[in-house]
Amino acid sequence: MYYRFGKAFHFISVLFFVFAFLYIYASLPDLVSYQLNEDGVGIKIMTKSSFFYTGIILFLVLNVLLIAPGKLIENQSTANLKRLFPTGDVFRDYMLTWIYSFVGIINVSLCILGIFVLSINNQNEMATSEFTFFFYLVPIFFVVWILGLFWILIQKFKSIKKQP
Asked: What parts of the sequence cross the membrane (predicted)?
């Protein structure tokens, strides 16, 4: 039941990424800097099209690779997964929720990364310091979600131990 909320969050994060990435792409100059020196001059530069294709490929690869385990669990693809996460098991629901929401968090993090690149390239319109709160959110999200995974796995192992 709860995994549907995770799926909805994943879907919304995909839409958010697509719209944000297209906006970011349209706002970037022809040469995109992604690292600055102390004077604010771009050290590492790529073309706008390279940035676009790199971002889309990274997004697609991460989404496909990280959603695959969730789909395997959801579809009960192997006998081991059927035994470990049977249909109706509360931990199956928790794990699916965690997987889908984690991929959603990664999508949101990619949007924040895109905003950072945009702020580097448009210093006159938006300062990087305006978004520092969002930049600190990325590691906080990852730590919280990884701790959530460990909690789910510990609870699952405890329930397996209790079974005769």
From this structure: 50-73, 94-121, 133-154
